[in-house]
Amino acid sequence: MTTLTTSNPGNPGPVDVHKELHGDQLPRRAPLMVVGAGVVVAALLYVLADVNLLLAALVVFAISLVLPAWSAAVEGRRKATDRLVTVLVTSSFVLAMFPLFSILITVVSKGSKVLGIEFFTFSMRNVVGEGGGIYHALVGTLLITGAATVISVPIGLFTAIYLVEYSEGNRLSRWIRFLVDVMTGIPSIVAGLFAYALFVLFFGEGVRMGIGGSVALSVLMIPVVVRSTEEMLKLVPNELREASYALGVPKWRTVAKVVLPTALAGIVTGVTLAIARVIGETAPLLIIAGATDSVNFNLFDGRMASLPVFAYASQRNPGIPPEFSIDRAWGAAFTLLLIVMLLNLIARLVSYFFSPKGER
Amino acid sequence: MAKSIDVSDLNIYYGDFLAVEDVTIPIAAKSVTAFIGPSGCGKSTFLRSLNRMHEVIRGARVEGKVLIDGQDLYGSDMDPVNVRRMIGMVFQRPNPFPTMSIYDNVLAGQKLNSKRMKKSESDDIVERSLRSAGLWAEVKDRLDRPGSGLSGGQQQRLCIARAISVEPEVLLMDEPCSALDPISTSVIEDLIHELKTQYTIVIVTHNMQQAARVSDETAFFNLSGVGKPGRLIEVGRTQSIFSNPQDPATEAYIQGRFG
């Protein structure tokens, strides 16, 4: 502890520099102690007094609030506020994690037991009770989502390129932005009805087609692709465009060979997120792609199963005995989860390998 | 190679705002012309109008004539893309393409225009351009490394190599050393001395010593007040501008009394 005596006559007594700089502090482990105490109390209540889990969590939260009060008494107002906000933010984070982990654990525990070779290689054709698999739904989901991606990515990409590189903020671009925002808010069932109405025009009432599902999913996907691509293109520094122009490169080549490659990593991530957003859509596919027990590789002919619709149908009409069908529903849900995780992984890899070199 | 530029009665606008007014200036071939002046006086704007780069900014336009070898750059049948192929540019901040290697950065002018070349031919261009830019010795063993991994001064020389690899007639430099340390600056100034045997060079600089060191001709730009257009005050041999300026404003600026 350093003490320093000043010769300043207006200053009474020595100044404790250490105390001035460090102030009064709670022990380093104070947050751990308080939250630990909270967890112990909640656990005791849960075991002994039989309170429910929600109440126990609330008890932990309430006891955590002791920390800012304690801090206010020792450390003063500024640090107490800091502790209070830390408690609130952390609690919100934990709260947000609850549903995530709850879903993950439920899906994995209930879905993993049916997984196996048969589950992934057999359809549900002529299967009653045990056995069968999701091959037909897997094929359908991959085909429908793949076709939706093929439709959405060019449209979304070119729209974003127009907005950022060519529109110069004109009236049309403001309208496009507004309509894209409106499209973002379209309920998926409306997208499904739109696709159905569109296909009825050509093929008559009661039409069922995989490609219709792709059209419905594109309606949901395009705004996400446009928005994310637009943001990524805006991040490309203008200096790179100017450098390219100054070399006598026409604008379209500048966009194609300088702007897009520079933004590629972000664009791919955006597209992947858009795919993840639509791959679990049930309602539009239920309307336009329908449900079937058989494998259908033709997007343009007849009903096509998909994982979400399969899960829904298996849960809804499980047959007798119901447990096999319900197990398969969970298995389908788990598979869907795996696909989305795989997509995210691929997007990470792509953005790692394609991001501008020297900056990663 | 190397052409002279004749600018007459050039007015440059951003929308309705007149940024640079009534510039008439001859720029000699195979020489270095420096533009000096306080911030906001329009020297960069004027420089960018010499290869139609200012048109990239929305609403920017030009009245008057810029003749290169007797051809009006702003003639109705002139393609700005071709103009920029003939008049290269180096920017204030080094801006190598981050997705490309050093090799590809030098060849960017050809690659981005999808020009087909034999490997030996492109190797030649890369080596020649990097040698001219004084960077060859430092990077010859790592041509496949990303250009953004170089130091600031090296990046700027890479940008110069990129600009001269397309063999322009004129090289415009917009404060090429303002983001660099003194050592890199002196390397680039030496480079400018060497390049002027082949190219017509126009350089904008905030640094009067630099103008005195590198240029043959100096043009002083000034603006009479905030919101007023910038004007060309005086142009002449660098030596006479610095030792015997005709205009009191030039003298005041050169002596560091404003700007």
Q: Which key phrases capture this entry?
A:
heterodimer; A: MetI-like fold; 2 domains; 2 strands; B: 259 residues; alpha/beta; 10-stranded mixed beta sheet; 10 strands
Number of helical segments with 4 or more residues of chain B: 11
- CATH fold type of chain B: Rossmann fold
| CATH-scheme architecture of chain B | 3-Layer(aba) Sandwich
Ends distance of chain A: 45 Å
**Beta fraction of the residues of chain A?**
under 5%
Number of helices of chain A: 15
Largest interface: A-B, 25 and 35 residues
Considering the protein shown, what is the CATH homologous superfamily of the largest domain in chain A?
MetI-like
Helical content class of chain B: 25-40%
How many domain regions of chain A? 2
CATH topology of the largest domain in chain A: MetI-like fold
Tally of strands of chain A: 2
**Overall 3D geometry of chain B?**
globular
- Sheet with most strands: strand arrangement of chain A: 1-2
Sheet-strand content of chain B, in percent, reads 25-35%
Q: How much helix, percentage-wise, in residues of chain A?
A: over 70%
Radius of gyration of chain A: 29 Å
Structure explained in plain terms:
The complex is a heterodimer of chains A (360) and B (259). Chain A has 360 residues and is mainly alpha-helical. Chain A has two domains: 3-104, no CATH class; 120-354, Orthogonal Bundle (MetI-like fold). Chain A has helices spanning 17-22, 30-49, 53-64, 66-74, 77-111, 117-121, 135-166, 171-184, 188-203, 210-235, 238-246, 251-279, 283-288, 307-316, 323-354; strands at 3-4, 15-16. A two-stranded antiparallel sheet of chain A has the order 1-2. In chain A, helix 5 packs across helix 15 and helix 12 (251-279) packs antiparallel against helix 15. The model of chain A has no long low-confidence stretch (mean pLDDT 88). With 259 residues, chain B is an alpha/beta fold. Chain B has a single domain, classed as P-loop containing nucleotide triphosphate hydrolases (Rossmann fold), CATH 3.40.50. Chain B is built from eleven helices and ten strands. Chain B has helices at 43-49, 80-86, 102-106, 108-112, 119-132, 136-139, 152-165, 182-195, 208-214, 238-243, 248-254, and strands at 5-14, 17-27, 32-36, 60-68, 71-72, 87-90, 170-174, 200-204, 217-223, 230-237. In chain B, strands 5-4-1-2-10-9-3-8-7-6 form a ten-stranded mixed beta sheet, with helices on both faces. In chain B, helix 8 links the parallel strand 7 (170-174) and strand 8. The two termini of chain B are 36 Å apart. Chains A and B meet through helix 11 and helix 12 of A and helix 2, helix 4 and helix 7 of B.
